[in-house]
C-alpha cells in the first residue's frame, strides 16, 4: 500500500517536472528577427501563364458544386459555386508545358453584372517553384478585358507573398463554356 503510494507520488513528481520543463520551452508569442527566418531582401517576381477552365467534356476541370434555387433564372447565374482544379500552362495550348494548377472555388457573387468571387491557390510545379503556392482572393468581372485580383499570401518560396494578378481572356468558347485565360502575376516575396 505504502509502496504503491510512493510510486504514485514519484510518477506525479515526474509529470509535474516534465510540465515545468515543457512550459519553459513553449511560448505563445515572441519577437523574431527577420534574419533568423532567412528573410534578407524582398524581391519582386513576375509570372506569366495560361489558365484552362474546362467545364465541358468527359474530364472537366471546373465543376458546379452548388447553386441557389434562383441561379438558373439569373442572367449572371447568381449563387453558383464552381470547384476548380484547372491546369496552368506555359503557352495557350492545353498541351503546352504544365507549370501548376489553380485549385479552389469561384462563385457568382453579382446579380447585375458578371462578377465572380475567386478563392483559389496557384500550386506551382515548375522548376524552383515546385511545391510553392500563391493564394488569390478577389473579384473577377469576367467580361472586362483585364481583371485584377489580389495575391493575399503564399507558401514555400512565396512565403509572405503579396501582389496582384491580372487576368485577360485569351479564348472563350460560348458553345462549351471552356475558357483559356492569360495571367500576369506580380508578386513581392523573399
Ligand atoms: C489555399 O491554401 C491554403 C493553405 O494551404 C488553404 O488553407 C486554403 O484552404 C486553400 N484555399 C483554397 C480556396 O483552396
Ligand atoms: C440589381 O438589379 C436588381 C433587379 O434588376 C435591382 O433591384 C438592384 O437594385 C440592382 N442592384 C444593383 C447593385 O445595381
Ligand atoms: C515536384 O516535386 C515533386 C515532389 O517533391 C516531385 O515528385 C516532382 O517530380 C517535381 N516536379 C518537377 C517538375 O520538378
Automatic annotation (TrEMBL):
InterPro entries assigned to the protein according to its UniProt record, in alphabetical order: Allene_oxi_cyc_Dirigent, Dirigent
Gene3D superfamilies: Allene oxide cyclase-like
Gene Ontology annotations for the cellular component aspect, listed alphabetically: apoplast
Main location (coarse class): secreted
Signal sequence bounds: 1-23
Source superkingdom: Eukaryota
Pfam families referenced in this protein's UniProt entry, alphabetically: Dirigent
One GO-annotated biological process of the protein: phenylpropanoid biosynthetic process
Keywords: Apoplast, Secreted, Signal
Localization: Secreted, Extracellular space, Apoplast
Keyword GTP-binding: no
Keyword Protein biosynthesis among record annotations: no
Function description: Dirigent proteins impart stereoselectivity on the phenoxy radical-coupling reaction, yielding optically active lignans from two molecules of coniferyl alcohol in the biosynthesis of lignans, flavonolignans, and alkaloids and thus plays a central role in plant secondary metabolism.
Stated family: Belongs to the plant dirigent protein family.
Self-association and partners: Homodimer.
Protein name: Dirigent protein
Originating species: Citrus sinensis
Lineage, highest ranks first: Eukaryota, Viridiplantae, Streptophyta, Embryophyta, Tracheophyta
Amino acid at each position: 500500500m505504502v509502496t504503491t503510494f510512493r510510486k504514485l507520488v514519484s510518477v506525479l513528481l515526474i509529470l509535474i517536472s516534465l510540465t515545468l520543463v515543457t512550459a519553459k520551452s513553449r511560448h505563445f508569442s515572441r519577437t523574431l528577427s527577420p534574419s533568423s527566418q532567412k528573410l534578407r531582401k524582398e524581391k519582386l517576381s513576375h509570372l506569366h501563364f495560361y489558365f484552362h477552365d474546362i467545364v465541358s467534356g468527359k474530364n472537366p476541370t471546373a465543376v458546379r458544386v452548388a447553386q441557389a434555387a434562383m441561379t438558373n433564372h439569373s442572367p449572371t447565374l447568381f449563387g453558383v459555386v464552381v470547384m476548380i482544379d484547372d491546369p496552368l500552362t506555359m503557352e495557350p495550348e492545353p498541351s503546352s508545358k504544365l507549370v501548376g494548377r489553380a485549385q479552389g472555388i469561384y462563385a457568382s457573387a453579382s446579380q447585375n453584372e458578371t462578377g465572380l468571387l475567386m478563392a483559389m491557390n496557384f500550386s506551382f510545379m515548375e522548376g524552383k517553384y515546385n511545391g510553392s503556392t500563391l493564394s488569390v482572393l478577389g473579384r473577377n468581372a469576367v467580361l472586362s478585358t483585364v481583371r485584377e485580383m489580389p495575391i493575399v499570401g503564399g507558401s514555400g518560396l512565396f512565403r509572405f507573398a503579396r501582389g496582384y494578378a491580372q487576368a485577360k481572356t485569351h479564348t472563350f468558347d460560348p458553345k462549351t463554356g471552356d475558357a483559356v485565360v492569360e495571367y500576369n502575376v506580380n508578386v513581392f516575396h523573399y
